[in-house]
Amino acid sequence: MSERDDSTPRAVTMRDVAQAAGVSVSTVSHVVNDKKGARIGKEARERVQRAVQELGYRPNAMAKVLVKGHSRFLGLVADAIASTPFAGQIIRGAQDEAWRHGYVLLVANTEGNEAAETEAIAMMLEHKVRGVLYSAWYHREVEPPAGLTETDCVLVNCFAPGGDLPAVVPDEVAGGYEATRMLLAEGHRRIGFINTTSPSPAHDGRLEGYRRALTDAGVSFEPDLVVDARPDQEGGFEAIGPLLAQDVTGVFCHNDRVAMGVYDGVRERGLRVPGDLAVVGFDNQEVIAAHLRPPLSTVALPHYELGRVGVRVLLGLDQPADDGRVVVGCPPVHRASVNVTAGVNGPPAAPH
């Protein structure tokens, strides 16, 4: 049997810090664990802090969990965020805000696998996370896993039936309003809307925003100018023909992929964006929007802000409304696909 290797440095203990600072071990414990109400003089506290720094003492993480009841971890369980075109923006926003408040984010991307989801939540509970963010890759109603009842939880980009859990969601209505306003502000009055065929908060909210913007500008809503289509490039290509036949001069697309198809349909007919048709998308999927020719005006889904605000709600720094939700704005992103010459079909819309 080989002899024990004594060259391995011994970990600095709380007793070592106490001896260096000339205080008791319990005093060191109170200082390093930031014990509330502990009566420790300023000089003694400074000696402990100086000894901790000089000796390189690192508090035992699990011991701190026992003292505080939770760790410095926050959990984030996502169904497919890491593989979506918005890769990691919710995660990045949550991570930045967690770090700002002294927490580390534990991330589990489950790809919608129920067993993996259950295991991930169990692992986070074992690590005594301060709380869990549960997120979906597109805005919808979800049935939260049962394990989330064992800790604080905030839903991000999704919501539960009955509003049982706080939820941070994008403002689909205001986003639809802003998209339509970009067209109205340039004088367009015959504005089509290519919506999705799938029932969802985005389908209903963006349509409501479109209608509100028209009403506020004194423009009548025409149901025939709203076309439901598949939310992809082919859907946009197929939908633009019927709208052009009704003499629209601008079109608001459910997302940027639909807008790609609209560009294709316009080009095939020998027309131009924005000279013959102004186009606005939704999502600000930059790999599409910023690289179309001309670059696409759109409305951004605030994924980074959703993650950031989710952490703030989880830590009690922001409070949801009475319905349990925090609604995050969808800002307009102005590029070159909207006609910059006002007065296409009359005077510009009055600002709201």
Beta fraction of the residues?
15-25%
Largest sheet: 6 strands, parallel
Radius of gyration: 27 Å
What is the CATH C level class of the largest domain, in words? Alpha Beta
Instruction: Please state the second-level CATH architecture of the largest domain.
Output: 3-Layer(aba) Sandwich
Number of domains: 3
Q: Could you tell me the number of beta strands?
A: 12
The secondary structure category is alpha/beta
Helix-strand topology string:
HHHHEHEHEEEHEHEHEHEHEHEE
CATH fold call of the largest domain: Rossmann fold
Query: What is the overall number of helices?
Result: 12
Q: Give the helix proportion (percent range).
A: 25-40%
End-to-end Cα distance, whole Å, is: 83 Å
Give the uncertain stretches in residue-range form: 341-352
Output the CATH homologous superfamily of the largest domain: Response regulator
Strand order of the largest sheet: 2-1-3-4-5-11
State the shape.
elongated
Task: Name the average pLDDT.
Answer: 87
Protein name: LacI family DNA-binding transcriptional regulator
Pfam families: LacI, Peripla_BP_3
Keywords: DNA-binding, Repressor, Transcription, Transcription regulation
InterPro entries: HTH_LacI (IPR000843), LacI/GalR-like_sensor (IPR046335), Lambda_DNA-bd_dom_sf (IPR010982), Peripla_BP_I (IPR028082)
